[in-house]
Design brief:
- Chain A: It holds the Pfam family MacB_PCD.
- The structure holds two protein chains of two kinds.
- Chain A contains 16 helices and ten strands.
- By secondary structure, chain A is an alpha+beta fold.
- Chain A has two domains: 194 residues, no CATH class; 200 residues, no CATH class.
- In chain A, strands 1, 2, 3, 4, 5, 6, 7, 8, 9 and 10 form a ten-stranded mixed sheet that branches.
- Chain B is an alpha/beta fold.
- Chain B has seven helices and ten strands.
- Chain B is globular.
- Classes of the chains: A alpha+beta, B alpha/beta.
- Chains A and B meet through helix 1, helix 13, helix 14 and helix 16 of A and helix 2 and helix 3 of B.
- The structure holds adenosine-5'-triphosphate (ATP) and magnesium ion.
- Adenosine-5'-triphosphate binds next to strand 2 and helix 1 of chain B.
Chain lengths: 420, 224
């Protein structure tokens, strides 16, 4: 439309001749959007990293056989005592097997469920590490290494050697980094493993495992399922734990309940296990948005002020425009478009600055024992943040421009013309 | 003779600071091609009347017709359009957009009307400036020209859309006699050759004497 072009041209001329004020207003928006982008990219990057850390290596459902006292004691079952009050002191759990009965059919059954991405077996066993005269207590877990890599990012925690090397070696062990350090062992060395029963097996170290949590790295090692079964002298169906990964984490709770009922096993879902973790994520998001919105509100007030001032200074122009045939709406459009131009320019600049800053943060080295896979600060460049940021800028400048422009629309030209 | 502008029983009050009946029962017509001037003592209500006739002031009683169409009570959008297309207004003080060039100031009403191409508008604008002897300042910024020049730029701007009527509030108040005569001649020529109507407030008796009709005002009334 020709009309709009004329009006935009007037708006532009005003902005250009008052370049300092325009720049101040735009910089307010730039600052707000820039910090929003930087904050949100960094915070969600951090969230994502923690998600990966906890969620990717934690099974969505962990199935095992808990050793606990029977809920019904024999006296409860005996019908002659049905209407009496029975008190049994010092109940102890019945010595029960840790193994999951029928583990392999259960795994097969779970793997057929369309919600399940994968269900894989583990054998957890307490052992002693023996090297020379040193003897250390620890855990040896039998795993299906390739599936662990695929489902639970196991590869990230193998700091030396490779998962494939374990797969290829029936007598191989992925030794915990803490254990290796204590016993001054390294790849290629041998370590003796003793079961609780006292049988000793020599295993070859094919890699080192580091989770980042010292308490774990000081005791935990991994071997193939078969190796552990052999060490324990158990058959191929000896499985103590089943880890399940789902396609959708939301299915974890109902499926865990179903498994508990169906198989009379303990099934812990990830949400119950990591309830406090989600709270942390929510609070970090809350902080990000609270800070960004505050900054934008401040920027909005800046625009509001400057437009108000601009309108005050441009009273004459407004009166002239109205006298020569521009309508109140046209005049409102002039000031609205000024606000929007400030918002668009300031916002785009803010996106650029946010992009630059978050890139800078993303390239800063961030190395910590706890996170072996991370070398720089985590940044999440989600294009949605840029879309949201820009919309934020436009909406806040629209709101900031609305009242002043409404005022300009209502200005009575006769009063101004008389006033001179 | 066709009537261009007609005021019927126009009354206006200022309510602040005290109730003041500034225009009292104004009735008159301006015909096509007529060059009328309004004279009267300072403070008798000439400017007030002109603001009403130019549709900028809507707070009055009575009826106003332009081209036999009732203007009173029309919507603001419509009034803006009427001002843009049919009325050229020259203020008592020169009113230009100071950040724009002289040429842009003159072109602005035509751009708003958007009936012609930009090239045509520019050509017409330069033509109007040339008639008023200020072609050479076309590219200057409106804030950098003299008072008399500003007044002529304002006249050029009032002419750009070839309006049906030009209203002027002392349009020659800031001009020397030579330029004042020039503006008078331009007005006269436009009214005779193009049938443009003119309604001009002036304190210059010589100027008024040369017009077709003098409307004498006193104390908010038309005396003759
Ligand atoms: N906004 C207002 N409120 C109250 N009274 C006003 C207002 N504007 C003008 N007046 C009064 O109305 C009367 C007419 O004013 P107006 O400007 O129309 O006079 P004028 O005839 O144009 O005078 P001049 O020749 O000096 O320009 C004056 O007495 C003035 O004081
Ligand atoms: Mg006056």
């Amino acid at each position: 439309m020709v009309n709009k072009k004329v009006i935009l041209n007037i708006a532009k001329t005003h902005l250009v001749t008052k370049i300092k004020q325009t720049a101040t207003a735009a910089l307010g928006v730039t600052f707000g959007i820039g910090s929003y982008i930087t904050l949100v990219c960094f915070m969600t990057g951090l969230n994502g990293m923690l998600d990966d850390l906890i969620l990717n290596q934690t099974p969505h459902i962990h199935i095992f056989n808990e050793i606990e006292p029977s809920k019904k004691q024999p006296t409860d079952l005996y019908f002659e005592f049905q209407n009496t009050l029975n008190i049994v002191h010092s109940i102890k759990p019945k010595q029960s097997q840790k193994r999951i009965h029928n583990a392999l059919p259960i795994i097969n059954y779970l793997n057929k469920d369309p919600k399940v991405k994968g269900a894989i077996p583990q054998i957890k066993e307490q052992i002693f590490y023996i090297a020379g005269s040193i003897e250390l207590g620890g855990n040896l877990t039998g795993i299906d290494i390739l599936q662990e890599v695929e489902l639970f990012n196991f590869k990230d925690y193998v700091v030396k050697g490779s998962p494939q090397a374990l797969k290829n070696n029936d007598n191989g062990i992925l030794l915990g980094a803490g254990v290796a350090e204590k016993m001054s062992l390294d790849i290629g060395d041998r370590v003796q493993v003793s079961t609780i029963k006292g049988d000793v097996f020599p295993l070859k170290i094919v890699g080192l495992y580091q989770s980042g949590i010292a308490d774990i790295d000081n005791i935990q090692s991994f071997a193939n399922v078969k190796t552990v079964q052999r060490i324990l002298g158990q058959a191929e169906n000896y499985i103590t734990d089943i880890n399940v990964k789902l396609f959708n984490i939301e299915d974890a709770i109902p499926l865990a309940q179903k498994i508990e009922q169906q198989f009379q096993l303990k099934a812990i879902d990830i949400k119950t296990a990591n309830a406090q973790f989600e709270t942390g994520t929510t609070i970090r998001n809350l902080i990000t948005y609270a800070v960004s919105i505050t900054l934008l509100i401040v920027a909005g007030f800046g625009i509001y002020n400057i437009l108000n001032m601009m309108i005050y200074e441009k009273m004459n122009d407004i009166a002239i425009l109205k006298a020569i045939g521009f309508s109140g709406k046209d005049v409102q459009f002039i000031f609205m478009s000024q606000a929007m131009i400030i918002g668009a320019v300031g916002g785009s600049l803010g996106l650029l600055i946010g992009f630059g800053l978050s890139h800078l943060i993303g390239s800063l080295p961030f190395e910590t024992e706890a996170l072996p896979t991370i070398s720089t600060y985590p940044i999440n460049h989600n294009p949605w943040f840029y879309i949201i940021g820009f919309s934020f800028a436009m909406i806040s400048t629209f709101l900031a421009g609305y009242l002043p422009s409404k005022k300009a629309k209502k200005i009575d030209p006769v009063r101004i013309i008389r006033g001179q | 003779m066709k009537t261009i502008l007609e005021a019927r029983n126009i009354n206006k009050y200022f309510r602040k600071p005290v109730l003041f009946h500034v225009l009292k029962d104004i009735n008159f017509k301006v015909n096509q091609g007529e060059f009328a001037s309004i004279m009267g003592k300072s403070g008798c209500g000439k400017s007030t009347l002109l603001y009403i006739l130019s549709t900028m002031d809507t707070g009055y009683e009575g009826d106003l017709y332009l081209n036999t169409e009732l203007i009173t009570g029309q919507e603001n959008e419509k009034l803006s359009y009427i001002r843009n297309k049919h009325i050229g207004f020259v203020f008592q003080f020169h009113y230009l957009l100071s950040e724009f060039s002289v040429l842009e100031n003159v072109m602005l009403p035509a751009k708003k009307l958007a009936e012609k191409s930009i090239e045509e508008i520019e050509y017409n604008a330069i033509e109007k400036l040339r008639i008023l002897n200020i072609e050479h300042i076309a590219k200057k910024r409106a804030s950098q020209i003299s008072g008399g020049e500003k007044q002529r730029v304002a006249i050029a701007r009032a002419l750009i859309n070839n309006p049906t009527i030009i209203m002027g509030d002392e349009p020659t108040g800031n001009l020397d006699s030579q330029n004042s005569d020039n503006v008078f001649n331009i007005f006269k020529q436009l009214s005779e050759e193009q049938g443009l109507s003119l309604l001009v407030v002036t304190h210059d008796q010589d100027f008024a004497d040369k017009t077709d009709r003098i409307i004498q005002m006193g104390d908010g009334r038309i005396i003759n």
